Amino acid sequence: MEISTKALSLLSLEGKVAVITGAASGIGRGTAELFAQMGAKVALLDIDQAKGAEVERSINRDGRGAKFYKCDVTSDADCRKVTEAVIAEFGKIDILFNNAGVAIRKNTLDLSEKEWDLALDVTLKGIFMLSHYVIPHMINNGGGSIINTGSGWSLKGGANAVSYCASKGGALNLTRAMAIDHGKHNIRVNCICPGDIDTPLLHSECEQLGENEEQFMKAAADRPLNRVGTPQDVAYAALFFSSDMSAWVTGAHLVVDGGGLA
Q1: Distance, CA of 38 to CA of 33 (rounded, Å)
Q2: Known catalytic residue: 69?
Q3: What percentage of the chain has pLDDT greater than the value 70?
Q4: What is the DSSP letter of 245?
Q5: How far is Cα of residue 38 from the mean position of the Cα atoms in its chain?
Q6: Hey, which bits of the chain come out as E strands?
Q7: What number is the average pLDDT over the span 183-199?
């Protein structure tokens, strides 16, 4: 019982404030719900106002603290204004989960410049922009935890996904660089590398590739644990990186893919 109580205490986010991007669906929503259950106040960032507001209502129905902010993570102005708004509302930011991303399934010949820019702007620039404004508040608060969403394709290549692989590979090495720079500020920076997760993003990939959905999902489940991941699978990894249980972990990546890279 004593060990269990200590473990729960280490995982608790009670009194902490978390900012989550891409929070209107998928991994972002699943993580926001878990963080709220673990005691955090949650700032929900997304460009989808309707879905974001619904997530806010859902979390707050349980008497927990969540607030939605419409934010384009590629916009300097949006990231600055939202950071200021979160500080005004909650007083601090302890956790930043840079989770927003896009998946464009095209090769180098078929991909347009506009699509390339979108993929790198949302994933890489988005991490940079919000971190740029949030980190000073974390420094003033004595530290914090930043989690960036990478991918299994941060570590290897994949077919018809050049912009996705480039942006996710960049997210992983950006994580390492940030961890080196801000360890002295007691800010830990880590990366989660999911495999195929059952989200709207994964289903959009199937549609882009013009594949049969049943066959596509069956192929996605072809890994040692024999299933596609869930948003909760990734949320648990984000909880570990956000909590005191990972107090001496920074510059690391955690592959959450059911053994797909094994």
Answers
A1: 9
A2: no
A3: 99
A4: G
A5: 17
A6: 17-21, 41-46, 66-70, 95-98, 144-149, 187-194, 253-256
A7: 98
Mean pLDDT over the full length of the chain: 97
The residue among 148, 115, 129, 162 whose CA lies nearest residue 242 is 148
**Which is the catalytic residue, given 69, 133, 164, 236?**
164
**pTM summary value:** 0.96
Q: Largest Cα–Cα distance of the chain, in whole Å?
A: 59
Torsion angle (degrees, nearest 10) of CA 184, 80, 244, 192: -100
Task: Please give the pLDDT value at position 3.
Answer: 58
Q: With the C-alpha atoms ordered 64, 67, 68, 73, is the resulting torsion angle positive or negative?
A: negative
Q: Per the structure block, which two tokens stand in for 77?
A: 């102005």
Environment class of residue 127 by beta-carbon count within 10 Å: exposed (0-12), middle (13-18) or buried (19+)? buried
List domains and CATH numbers for the chain: 2-197+231-251 (3.40.50.720)
- The DSSP line for 127-166 is HHHHHHHHHHHHHHTT-EEEEEE--GGGTS--TT-HHHHH
DSSP 8-state symbol, 122: I
- Does residue 189 contact residue 251 with C-beta atoms inside 8 Å? yes
SS3 state of residue 219: helix
96: pLDDT strictly greater than 70: yes
Please list, in sequence order, all residues whose beta carbon lies within 8 angstroms of the beta carbon of residue 187, skipping any fewer than 6 positions away. 135, 138, 139, 143, 144, 145, 146
Q: Which residues pair with 255 in a beta bridge?
A: 193
Two tokens at 258?
Answer: 């059911």
CB atoms under 10 Å from CB of 96, counted, come to 31
Give the distance, in angstroms, between the CA of residue 22 and the centroid of all CA atoms in the same chain: 7
Count CB-CB contacts under 10 A for residue 184.
8
Contact criterion met (CB below 8 Å) for 26 and 231: yes
